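Troubleshooting log. The previous structure file for this entry was overwritten by mistake, so regenerating from the original sequence record. Sequence copied from the archived sheet and checked twice against the printout by T.R.
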Amino acid sequence: MPTARDYLEEGARLRKLGDNDRAIAAYDTCLSSSPDPVTEMIAWDGLGPAIMFKFMFMERKGETITNEEFGWHHRIFMCLQNQVRVFDERIAHTQAASNYIRPIEGARDQLKTIYMYGGSVLCKVGGTWTQRLRDLGECANLALPPLRCLAQQEADDMAKWRQSQAASEKKPEKRGFFKSLFGD
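Regenerated output below.
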């Protein structure tokens, strides 16, 4: 029976071959099989780039991607978060930590900027192309192909997002500065 490490190596081999769909599946299986901390951290580091290369995000402007692709790009963000989390919680205080400092610092740097990619979209208004903020409500209702390793995190993120949407709908109507001082 294959181990988590076997699936990790298969994912890396498939990624080198450019077979990103199968690499994603191999990393998902690895991460869903309770890997040791180092294997888990390396698998998160492999899954994100496999998704990135599948959609060729590094060759495209963020405002040109579809809502579905934006959802996949958010998964790259989650991979980076998980890679850093595993290092901080399970590896940082071990002898192996020094082997992974540079990749983890790279992941931390990426987290600072990657969330902005795809936040706006190009749309045609009249005969002119313009940029607007992406409607995250449209993205929230997408049914992306499932990744078992991210299922719980995606469900938690969605619950938080819906809760924030509900809270913003319950806020009292703003009356304006002068009306609040002087009444109607």
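Residues 174-184 have pLDDT under 50 and may be disordered. Archived copy saved in two places this time.
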